[in-house]
Each structure stands twice: as structure tokens, then as C-alpha cells.
Write a structure and sequence with these properties.
alpha+beta, 5 strands, elongated
Length: about 130
Amino acid sequence: MAQEPSSQEDTVPHVANVLFVECGFGNDSHGQSATKAAVRACRNSIEFNSIPSINRLVPGGYDALKLDVILAVPPKYQKGLDLEAVAKVFPYGETKFTIQDGGMIAPSGIAISALGDVNDDMVIVCASVTVGY
């Protein structure tokens, strides 16, 4: 279940017991979709992990996991970010998002209208995923 984006000034930590922190990045080379880039960044953060002992480490197991996800997204593309779609990357737990200015816009070198391009921007998003309970 995704929560609304928050600022980093929140005083009560969503994840009180941190198990690990992972980082990743993703881009959308054509179509200028911050959502597609954020999905890829989150997937990149977690895709090479298997933690089979979660049921022993976390009271309540996988369903009790909490994730703090910080997404650095270019300001120009933040408005189109669909956090419900991004939250689907995470198969377990409760996800809280913090969106901050960042990421990158880089030229792809070509705008292809058939791919949804309105310009030649590549949208690049960085993600930090803190997992715990």
C-alpha cells in the first residue's frame, strides 16, 4: 500500500528498524515518463536480492515490512509521476515515498514521435529504498 509523498522533515520514522538500504537508477529514453523511469529505478534497487529469513527477522513477516523510498526526479517531470504504479514494484509491505528534486534530464539525441516523444529528453530518476519494520 503506497502512502502520499512526504518531506524529509517528518519526525516519526516510518522504518524504525532498518535492515538494509539499496540504491538504483532508471531512465525513460523515449516518452519522457518519470513514472517509467521511477519504476525502473526502484526495480534496479531491489531486483538482485533475496532475503529468505524475513519471516524470522521481522515480527509479522513479509506483510509487516516497511519501505521508505526516496525518489530524486527532475522537477520538470515530477507532476506526471504515478506513485501507485511505482508502488507495484514492491511485492510486500507498506511503502512511503519522499520525492525530491534531482535525477537528470539528458538528451537522447533524437525525438521519435511514434515512441511518444515530445522532445529528445531522457528522464533519469534515482531511488533509495530503505527496508525494515
